[in-house]
Amino acid sequence: MGLFDRHAGLLEAYRDVRTTGADPFQIRMERVLSPTEAIINGRKTLLVGTNNYFGLTFDPSCMEAAIEAIRAEGTGTTGSRIANGSYSEHVLLEEEIAAFYGKKHCMVFTTGYQANLGVISTLVGQGDHLLIDADSHASIYDACKMTQAEVVRFKHNDPSSLESRLRRLGDKPGNRLVILEGIYSMLGDSAPLKEFVEVCKKYGAYVLVDEAHSLGALGETGRGLCESTGVLDDCHFIVGTFSKTLGAIGGYCVSNDPDFDILRVTVRSYMFTASLPPSIVASVRQALRVVKARPELRKQLWDNVATLYDGLSAQGFKLGPEHGPVVGVHLPDRMLAIGFWRAMLDAGIYVNVAVPPATPNGVSLLRCSVCAAHTPQQLEHMIEVMTGIGRQLGVLSGAPKLRVVAGSR
Amino acid sequence: MPDPGTGEQLLRTAHQLIVENDDVANTLELPRLASRLDVIREICRHLAPYQAGERPIVGATVIAKDLTIDSLAIMDMVMELEDSFDVSIPMNVVAEIHTVDQLADTILDLRAKR
Question: CB–CB of A134 and B86 under 8 A?
Fold first, then answer.
């Protein structure tokens, strides 16, 4: 048996995808022009699938901070913080994130994936119990494979499903750790966190919330779902990423636990990978200042979310359950989703296509992520294009009320 | 229909039709003492949509191989079975289960340990 034979099924599915004429998993951005536009296939394309929620990738102050840091401290750290030591800026960034959340401790990781992978797999071990939402991100599932703890899934966003699983554990020894996400990355729905926290308190379970998609977007000061639901103090661990709202790359975990820092010498995804380069640390520190100083970006984001979500909904598209910076558009099957995605790219609009097994319940989606920097005109144009394609492909019924747009803008 | 417990052909009774088709019946709490056959029937009810061709689903059916079910759907089915039988089956245990029989035995073992 050849090494790749085990992937035969996937290879076949992937071949199907590529027969549509474009490979959604190998898109080349020939040139990125701004947070909302890039050149793809030689033409200017509207970006609505890049998780760039505040549009800070081109924020002049963040860019200047990064350039300055490269001049001062070079391009990379060339090793892990355990081996090569920390730069002052790593420590300052950790202090600033801890202060942002009002927590005592913060650890910064090289990616958000590594933050989840390392923290979750290390917090629980043999004899402990890890309870995860069924729709958890891959980084959480991968952490489950690495831990010796017993892992049980509960139904997505269902506190009673979590409760029945905590109840069944009865008086079994071992810690209980519950993993939740602020905003789920495929359908853009958020967890009923207050209800979940009540259940966790009742059964003495620790709570870890991944705010990857909710940092900046939710809460009065942008701290995420923990803040907007008023349970910041009840969440023992908050994980997040620098690669979405903060426009760079990296991950973090904050906590008030007095022994938290022991993770620095136990979490392997922290110990055995190179630390973030000075430029990234500098731009992230500045981006965090921007998030704090410019709450209007959050308002712009939500105004844009309303424009896109309500606009698509009014045309008859089936969407995720609530307004969110991620707008998931349901399509009947995988091939139709890929065909729709391709038609949108041809019309100059880039979104993500999400198909099983990367999606919950086997759904096929066009996954759109909204940016504060989108103009209402850009989003209205997108709704018009999607409506036209939706009618052509038979996804939307009824006589066309708008002209079918393809190609030009 | 084939009896999922033994693979033998059984007459489909009106009672079984109700159990299979009536959503109300699905929500009924199963008795505390579920028999092995009850457990296998419940598993087969969940697996029926994934039956490959005419091949009946029996105790020896290898879930991931003989049926058209993917790994995510298996995990979702396990979550439903957990609630039906009021047990939790850890993911590492699920990974070791291959056949309908093994899944039924796991559920019965976990129920016995409660």
Answer: no
Same domain for A259 and A304, yes or no, is no
From B90's Cα to the closest Cα of chain A, the distance in A is: 5
Please judge whether A361 and B76 are an interchain contact, meaning their C-beta atoms are less than 8 angstroms apart: yes
Residues 6-65 of chain B with CB under 8 A from chain A are none
Looking at the structure, tell me whether residues A157 and A219 fall in a common domain: yes
| Structure-derived torsion over alpha carbons of residues B33, B39, B45, B51, reported in degrees to the nearest 10 | 180
What is B35-67 written as a DSSP string? -HHHHHHHHHHHHGGG--TTPPP-TT-BHHHHS
CATH number of the domain within which A91 lies: 3.40.640.10
Range of A329's domain?
20-49+295-392
Facing A168 at nearest CB: one of B72, B75, B88: B88
A220-252 residue pLDDT tens: 999 999 999 999 999 999 999 999 999 999 999
Angle between helices A278-293 and A60-73 (to 10 degrees): 150
pTM of the full predicted structure?
0.90
Cis peptide leading into A357, omega within 30 of 0? yes
Q: Look at residues A233, A155, A144 and name the one whose alpha carbon lies nearest to residue A191.
A: A155
**Helix or strand holding residue B103 (H, E):** helix B100-112
Which chain A residue's Cα is nearest to B73?
A361
Identity of residue A202: K
**Alpha helices (runs of H) in A294-370, residue ranges in sequence order:** 296-314, 334-346
Residue with tokens 């977007």: A217
Q: Tell me the residue type at A207.
A: V
ipTM of predicted assembly, 2 dp: 0.86
DSSP A59: -
Contact indicator for A23, A17 with CB cutoff of 8 Å: yes
Closest-CA residue of B relative to A141 is: B91
Round to whole Å and give the CA distance between A274 and A109: 9
**Dihedrals φ, ψ of A183, to 5°?**
-130, 130
Cβ atoms of A219 and A225 within 8 Å: the answer is yes
pLDDT in tens, B30-89: 555 679 999 999 999 999 999 988 889 999 999 999 999 988 899 999 999 999 999 999
